[in-house]
Every structure is written in C-alpha cells, then in structure tokens.
Design a protein that fits this description.
By secondary structure, the chain is an alpha+beta fold. It has one domain (7-254): Phosphatase 2c, domain 1, CATH 3.60.40.10. It has helices at 7-29, 80-97, 104-118, 193-196, 207-217, 223-237, and strands at residues 37-38, 42-49, 57-63, 68-76, 125-133, 138-144, 150-153, 156-159, 178-181, 187-191, 247-254. Strands 1-2-11-10-7-8 form a 6-stranded antiparallel beta sheet. A 5-stranded antiparallel beta sheet has the order 3-4-5-6-9. Helix 2 (80-97) crosses helix 3 and helix 5 crosses helix 6.
Length: 262
C-alpha cells in the first residue's frame, strides 16, 4: 500500500533539492574562467548560459609554458544535473593533462580514452581544443563533433570545416589538427550548438549562418561586446520559444599591440 507524503515532507524534499542544485551551480561556476584573459597580444572572453540550474556545457582558457595559450569549449549530450556531472568528469580529465603542453590532438585523444574507461553508456561529449603560439601567431585546433569555429577577419566571418568523432563513443579514434595562421585584428569564435540550434515560433533555426551574420555586423567590437550581440540576437530570435539548450561561447581576439582590446 502506498503512503502519500505529508505536504511538510514534500516541502522539505523540495527545499533540499533546491539547496543541492544551488551548491551544484556554485561548484560548476568554479570550473569556468573567473574573468577574461588578457596578454599583450590576446584577449579572450566568454559567455555561459545554462538552460537549467546547471548545464552540460563547459569551457576554459589558460596560460601555458613557453608563451602558449590554451582554450577549449565543450558540450555534453543531455541537460541538467546528469550532464553537468559528466561535464565535470570531462573538465577534471582535461585539467589533468592540458597544462603538460601536449598537442591538441593528443589531449582530445586522451580525453576519449579516459571517458571510455569510465564506461558510462549513452554519454559522450563534443569539444574543440586549441593552443595558440603568440610567437608564430599560429593556432592549432583539434575538433571533435562541433561546428566551426568561426574565423572573423575584417568584415568577413568564415566557418572552419573541421571534423572528428565525439570523445566517449569509440575506441581507437585518432584526431587531426588544423593550423590557423592569425593576422592582427583576427578573432576566433567557439560556440556550442545551443546557439545554432535555437528555434523561433515558425520552427526555423538560428543556425551557424545566424551567428556569422552577427559577427560580420559587429566584427570590430571587443570580444565581450561581440558575445553580447550574439547572445542578444539568439534570445531575440527565439523570444517566444524560450531557451531550449545550454548556450556557451568564447571569443579569442589577436591584437599584437602593447595592450589587448577588452
């Protein structure tokens, strides 16, 4: 015979759940960069908007030895707390290897191996991992299951066509690296599909082309301002539908001058 829970018990359970989600949100926040990264030639800013209290998107950027700069943006399949936990697993793995200075393809390959060792069925992640060499003005990118990234040069915005299997799905996968030579004033935008898959009331998708259009119109803006325009455009596009997925993006701006733009 089933016993109905007392309203006071239900209230306590709900309150406990809210507290746990709040703690999970706080933990997830410390896995994200606390502020933009600025060097004498690079500025990186990001925006992170989960669809629920916590999300399955993740990103980081950081200084490496020998003047290198690392950056990754990723997205776990699913939403909510289970996705956030798997994202924490991916971030923990990445933080254990990225500061060793390994090449992007090696880092993503190692992530794939370690996620498979965990054996979590129906869970995987997509990711783009990049390392920038400021002395050569050269960015090396390994991509695994994500669209783009976008190269913004002048008033043009070009989607790079990179491919790779999402880590956590198949064993024995190898990854390629794409080398991008940057010019002064170039920006590179990395984003998850929460932005591109946003829909309007007519069922249309914002798509990667929508992100490109915004980037062309605001190509001269700072990374933070550009991100604000992109997210505002997506929100306006899906205004009567609401957000349906986590949305995350980072803009890497190369400006070899005494002080990077903000």
């Amino acid at each position: 015979m089933s016993v109905l829970a007392h309203p006071a018990d239900l209230h306590s359970i709900e309150k406990l759940r809210e507290q746990e989600l709040e703690e999970a949100r706080a933990i997830q926040s410390v896995m994200l960069p606390g502020e933009p990264l600025r060097t004498d030639c690079v500025t990186i800013s990001h925006e992170f908007q989960p669809v629920a209290e916590v999300g399955g998107d993740y990103l980081d950027y950081f200084l490496l030895p020998d003047g290198l700069i690392g950056l990754y943006v990723g997205d776990v399949c699913g939403k909510g707390l289970p996705a956030a936990l798997y994202a924490a697993l991916a971030v923990g793995t990445l933080r254990g290897v990225h500061k060793t200075g390994q090449a992007p393809a090696q880092v993503v390959s190692l992530l794939n191996k370690r996620l498979l060792l965990r054996g979590i069925s129906e869970r995987y992640t997509v990711i783009q991992y990049a390392i920038f060499d400021s002395l050569r003005a050269q960015m090396r990118i390994a991509s695994a299951g994500m669209l783009g990234p976008l190269l913004i040069r002048g008033n043009e915005c070009r989607a790079l066509q990179l491919a790779g299997f999402p880590p956590g799905l198949y064993s024995g996968v190898t990854y390629d690296e794409f080398t991008l030579n940057l010019e002064p004033g170039d920006s590179v935008l990395f984003c998850t599909d929460g932005l591109t898959d946003a829909r309007n009331v007519h069922g249309g998708q914002f798509d990667l082309g929508g992100v490109q259009d915004v980037c062309r119109r605001h190509a001269g803006d700072s990374p933070a301002a550009l991100l604000n325009h992109v997210f505002s455009a997506v929100q306006e596009f899906s205004r009567n539908c609401g957000q349906s997925d986590d949305m995350t993006a980072a803009v890497f701006h190369y400006s070899p001058s005494p002080r990077g733009s903000g």
